[in-house]
Amino acid sequence: MTKIAIPLLAVLALTACETVKGAGRDMQAAGHAVTSEAAETQAEM
């Protein structure tokens, strides 16, 4: 049972890391978009 559980947990952990990494990229892209829009609005004022 242990021989199956440990690799399974490792795969799940790696998948979770990739998910968090992807979410981080999405939030970073959203932050860049907000910053860009704020700079454009400020330049128009």
What is the topological layout?
Elements: H1 2-44
Keywords: Cell membrane, Lipoprotein, Membrane, Palmitate, Signal
Protein name: Entericidin A/B family lipoprotein
Pfam family, one: Entericidin
Describe the structure.
With 45 residues, the chain is an all-alpha fold. It contains one helix and no strands. It has one helix at 2-44. The longest helix has 43 residues, at 2-44. Pfam families: Entericidin. Belongs to the EcnA/EcnB lipoprotein family. This is Entericidin A/B family lipoprotein. Keywords: Cell membrane, Lipoprotein, Membrane, Palmitate, Signal. It comes from Rhodobacter lacus.
Explain briefly what this protein structure is.
With 45 residues, this protein is an all-alpha fold. 96% of the residues lie in helices and 0% in strands. The mean pLDDT is 86.
Shape: rod-shaped
Helix fraction by DSSP (H/I, runs of at least 4):
over 70%
* Euclidean distance between termini CA atoms: 66 Å
Average pLDDT confidence is: 86
Strand percent estimate:
under 5%
Low-pLDDT parts are none
H/E series: H
Q: How many individual helices?
A: 1
Q: What is the SS-derived class? A: mainly alpha
Tally of extended strands?
0
Radius of gyration: 20 Å
Main pleated sheet:
none
